[in-house]
């Protein structure tokens, strides 16, 4: 299943929050840190529509991702999929699109999240472990 990409507008905030919360809930509950109010505040603090893209399958928004361009690299802030859409190759497709830009990619994944296995399978290496997050990096082949 190959998604299409759609731009994000300021008016999309609530719809994106509705995707983010179920995607993160299980991992945050495992850490005892789930809060809808915190999820809203975190998304608001990082809401940059120019860096964001919806993932659309059969006309339905099923996820989104955010890539911030930085000096000589990219920072993947979000890659969220509706739980029913996980495990179908969409996340791998997104990573392929981002990797095709040929720049190093940095990201953080919530400790104890299934996302850690996903990023490791896609050649991201751990560069730092923090209290709640694990920092990863991917480098393009020389």
From TrEMBL:
**Could you tell me the keywords of this UniProt record?**
Acyltransferase, Transferase
Q: What is its EC number?
A: 2.3.1.-
Gene Ontology MF, one: acyltransferase activity
So which domain of life are we looking at? Bacteria
Enzyme kind, highest EC tier? transferase
- The N-acetyltransferase domain covers which part of the protein? 3-142
In Swiss-Prot or TrEMBL terms, this protein is called GNAT family N-acetyltransferase
Question: What is the native source organism of this protein?
Answer: Pelomonas parva
């Amino acid at each position: 299943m190959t998604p299409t990409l759609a731009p994000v507008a300021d008016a999309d905030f609530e719809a994106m929050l509705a995707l983010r919360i179920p995607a993160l809930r299980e991992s945050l509950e495992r850490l005892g840190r789930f809060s809808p109010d915190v999820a809203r505040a975190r998304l608001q603090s990082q809401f940059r529509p120019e860096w964001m893209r919806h993932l659309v399958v059969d006309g339905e928004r099923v996820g989104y991702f955010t890539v911030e361009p930085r000096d000589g690299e990219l920072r993947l802030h979000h890659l969220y999929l509706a739980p029913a859409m996980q495990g179908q190759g969409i996340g791998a497709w997104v990573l392929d699109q981002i990797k095709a830009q040929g720049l190093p990619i940095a990201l953080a994944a919530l400790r104890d999240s299934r996302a850690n296995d996903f990023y490791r399978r896609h050649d991201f290496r751990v560069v730092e472990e923090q209290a709640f997050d694990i920092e990863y990096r991917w480098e393009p082949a020389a």
